[in-house]
Amino acid sequence: MASEDLYLYFHGLLLPKIVHSEDSLNYFRTFRVQDDDVFVISYPKSGTTWMQEIVPLLLNGGDFTPVESIPNWDRVPWLEETRAVLVMDKLRAPRTMVSHMLYHLMPSTFSSSKAKVIYIARNPKDVLVSSFYFHQMASFLDDPGTFEEFMDKFLAGQVLFGKWTDHVKSWRNTDLGDRILYITYEELIQDLRGALERMLRFLGRQMSEEALDRVTEHCLFKNMKNNNMSNYSLVPQEVMDSSKSAFLRKGIAGDWKNHFSPELEAKFNEVIRKEMEESGISFPWDEE
Length: 288
Ligand code: PPS
Known about the structure:
Layout: H1 3-6, E1 7-10, E2 13-16, H2 22-29, E3 38-42, H3 48-59, H4 65-69, H5 72-75, H6 84-87, E4 96-99, H7 108-112, E5 116-121, H8 124-137, H9 147-156, H10 164-172, E6 180-184, H11 185-190, H12 192-203, H13 209-218, H14 221-224, H15 262-276
Parallel strand pairs: 3-4, 3-5, 5-6
Antiparallel strand pairs: 1-2
Helix pairs in contact: 3-12
Bound molecules: 3'-phosphate-adenosine-5'-phosphate sulfate (PPS).
Residues 42, 44-50, 126, 130, 133, 219, 221, 224, 248-251, 255 line the site of 3'-phosphate-adenosine-5'-phosphate sulfate (PPS).
């Protein structure tokens, strides 16, 4: 399918038509944010689905009912997607939603509200690898071509939600103060329980040691992979072909090392370094 049939543009950002429309973007733009709303913000492939599992459990004291009975896209909907208008009224307060949008494109009521934000970032090299496989299995995305071709598109921002560097820079340079918590996918991989404790404190919640142990165990990759409400097995094969690649694919940090040649790594590092150099932002993976 031609790419104009697959995507629409929103402020220069490429969005897949299968879940975005003019109406859904109008809904997004005019959405009335409430003070107790909780947002998870991510660049695609940075740990969104993981957070759709984690945050409801932290907010409800470790009750597994929603994560075992409601698909992730309705449990913690994407605010910019077509399902938001259908499920938002069904969310219990505090409403939890995800968004891949840049900071300056958020609804106007967002910055004046007291809504909290958890921003999850991931090593862009692993984001690229994850996205490459996602493009192979998702029929609503264009063919990624070779890994090198896809890397060029990624670096040029000709991928979903634009450039990774624009996304992380937009969300680092906000005036949200203590309303925003920054977390990384790698931190979750390294010490999931510790990261959950950090998020609990940020959300102003408490949980018994035993409940936190159970939530940690439930959110491990090997267990989440078996949760049909979160592993995208409810999506028809012709839309997401898990025989090509699973949505919950590897769930590790550093898979990029299996995909980058030294030349590709040098090219990638150079572009990202240049675009980040005056931002003052550093990430744990910068030294790798
Ligand atoms: S999307 O399409 O933007 O919603 O994708 P997103 O959920 O942000 O990213 C998908 C990657 O996150 C991995 N994932 C996990 N890793 C470790 N542990 C858990 N529990 C987990 N859940 C999701 C998923 O496997 C994708 O990464 P890759 O590298 O492709 O495996």
